[in-house]
Amino acid sequence: MGYFIDTARAMAVTMRNVFRPPTTVQYPKEDRVRPERYRTSFALVHDASGDEACIACLACERICPSRIITVKPAGKRESPVTGKKRNYLEDLTLDLNACIFCELCVQVCPTDALIMLRELAKPALSREGLFLSMERLYANESLAHSWGTGSRLMEMQDPKRGLPALEPGREAPPQGVDPIADGVS
Ligand code: SF4
Ligand code: SF4
């Protein structure tokens, strides 16, 4: 009798779920709304004058708990935009393989040069695919307006930065740029 009741219960559960609508999402054909604090990748950006915003201060490298950011300063030189001497970057790399997405590097950046993105990108197929070279970080700048992170988004819409305000609602990311897909350099 016990077996019969257990079997009937199990069948009832099965029958209840057979007629439920599926909860899976067929990504990338379908997309779903991302939580406000969803993060996937990073970008390096220029400032409002068009000059490189990064001043190679090493703050992001020093604060990163995973020790995955490497900054190589290039020293001081004259800015082609303002004509004033300032520090420039020779290289900055970030290894997403060990990133814990704490956002400390972004929050500590004094010039808003480093930002996080919340684009839903294709997964990388190798460890190398999760390594962000400086070229890849600058290539991701084009995603900043659409997919910059919440806290930084507020600052990026500040008219003092000279960047256009975002349209309400989500925008499709530009075609052909995928921050964490393999083969982007
Ligand atoms: S978000 Fe990633 S790269 Fe930035 S400080 Fe945290 S662990 Fe380091
Ligand atoms: S990204 Fe920001 S914190 Fe990191 S070196 Fe450049 S200016 Fe400094």
Write structural notes for this entry.
The chain is α+β, with helices and mostly antiparallel strands. The protein has a domain at 35-160: 2-Layer Sandwich (Alpha-Beta Plaits), CATH 3.30.70. The chain has helices spanning 2-18, 59-63, 104-108, 134-139, 144-147, 150-156; strands at 41-44, 69-78, 85-95, 114-117, 131-132. It binds iron/sulfur cluster (2 copies). Residues 63-66, 68-69, 94, 99-105 line the site of one iron/sulfur cluster.
The count of DSSP E runs of length 2 or more, i.e. the number of strands, is: 5
General shape? elongated
Q: How much is the average pLDDT?
A: 81
> What is the helix fraction of residues, given as a range?
10-25%
- Rg, rounded, reads 22 Å
Strand content: 15-25%
Q: Give, in spatial order, the strands making up the sheet with the most strands.
A: 2-3-5
Structural classification: alpha+beta
Largest sheet properties: 3 strands, antiparallel
Low-confidence parts, pLDDT < 50 over ≥5 residues?
A: 162-185
| Topology-level CATH name of the domain at 35-160 | Alpha-Beta Plaits
CATH class of the domain at 35-160: Alpha Beta
Briefly say what this structure is.
The protein is α+β, with helices and mostly antiparallel strands and 185 residues long. The chain has a domain at 35-160: Alpha-Beta Plaits.
Structural descriptors:
binds iron/sulfur cluster; alpha+beta; 185 residues; single chain; three-stranded antiparallel β-sheet; disordered C terminus; Alpha-Beta Plaits
